[in-house]
Amino acid sequence: MQEDHVSMGWSAARKLRRSVDGLQRVLAVELLTATRAIDMRGGEASPGTGAAIAAIREVAEGPGRDRYLSPEIEATVELVSSGAILRSVERVVGKLR
Length: 97
Prior knowledge:
This protein is mostly helical. The chain has helices at 9-41, 47-57, 70-82, 84-93. The chain has one domain.
């Protein structure tokens, strides 16, 4: 008549951490790709989008010659994980919820 209580919290927290890390990487690649697409189309970006593009352009070049993109992706991942892109956009458009 005893129950075995096993905490699954530790393994669940580790899995969540891996998921969050993966999400940050996916968001960074999507932002970098969208920035390049906007640059190549040559269109006018909204103020918030322009702020995000400006933040990314500080660490990643625009379209151009073929090159190894891993350093630019890693720098953009750092911008996402540190919240720098969000802060840049919020300075222009106000607090996002």
